[in-house]
Amino acid sequence: MAYVNARVLTMGAAGVIERGTIVVDGERIVSVGTSPPPPGVTVVDLGGKTVMPGLIDVHAHLHYGVSDAQPQRSWAHEINLAYGVTTVFDPSAHNDTVFATSERIDAGLELGPRVFSTGYILYGAKSKDRSDIQNLDDARMHLARMKAMGATGVKSYQQPARAQRQWVLAAATEEGLNVYPEGGGDLWQDLTMIVDGHPTSSTVSPTRRSTTTSSGSTRRAAPATPPPCSWPMAA
């Protein structure tokens, strides 16, 4: 099939092609340019409409807070497709929901963007959902568990000791997974994550000087030096 008379945003050296031709074979784009369509293919005239690569939402909580039975169609997935989002990454979702949904979409059983996810977070605070990590073997167990479920990475969420976060990183390296940490708004914890080699950090705490608002209230700036830490710190 060939789509002609398209305004193509190539996102490459070719720039914008005002009257482009896109040739598709099955599910693959085989050529993009200004050449006429090959003989014998179905031709669709796009009438000057714009065609661009699919957008990727790298922090999409499309499955957030949902753990019940899921419908076979998701309005959230279909709206994303309608606005050009063809791939999403969900950094916090229920395991039994997000991985099943991802597999259904890949199999063509459900309409939606491709879904990648960490699954449920590796939560460090005391709660019924806590992922207790006291040594490297604990971290290895959690990383292997999440990888087996279908996770492409894990979210290291508020693990209080720097050593714990480093164990998660080490285990992730062994499993070939990424780590997406979140420090709970603690700037200095965020900085240690960067120093230790995390590839990213979610919801990083901003730092600013104290300012007085129009109402007279004062916003506090981050301290000039890190506060003392009572947790065991790894070198």
How is the topology of this model organized?
Blueprint: E1 2-9, E2 16-25, E3 28-33, E4 43-45, E5 50-51, E6 55-57, H1 75-82, E7 85-90, H2 95-106, E8 114-117, E9 122-123, H3 136-149, E10 153-154, E11 156-157, H4 162-175, E12 178-179, H5 187-195, E13 211-212, E14 218-219
Parallel strand pairs: 1-4, 1-5, 6-7, 7-8, 9-11, 10-12
Antiparallel strand pairs: 1-2, 2-3, 13-14
Which properties best describe this structure?
5-stranded mixed β-sheet; 14 strands; Translation Initiation Factor IF3; alpha/beta; 235 residues; 24% helix; 3-stranded parallel β-sheet; 23% strand; TIM Barrel; disordered C terminus; elongated; 3 domains
Give a written overview of the molecule.
This protein is α/β, with parallel strands linked by helices and 235 residues long. The protein folds into three domains: 2-52; 54-117, Amidohydrolase (Translation Initiation Factor IF3, 2-Layer Sandwich), CATH 3.30.110.90; 118-209, Aldolase class I (TIM Barrel, Alpha-Beta Barrel), CATH 3.20.20.70. The protein contains five helices and 14 strands. It has helices spanning 75-82, 95-106, 136-149, 162-175, 187-195, and strands at 2-9, 16-25, 28-33, 43-45, 50-51, 55-57, 85-90, 114-117, 122-123, 153-154, 156-157, 178-179, 211-212, 218-219. Strands 1, 2, 3, 4 and 5 form a five-stranded mixed beta sheet that branches. A three-stranded parallel beta sheet has the order 6-7-8. The protein has a two-stranded parallel ribbon with strand order 9-11. Helix 1 (75-82) links the parallel strand 6 and strand 7 (85-90). Helix 3 (136-149) crosses helix 4 (162-175). The radius of gyration is 23 Å and the shape is elongated. Mean pLDDT is 85; it is low at 209-213 and 218-235.
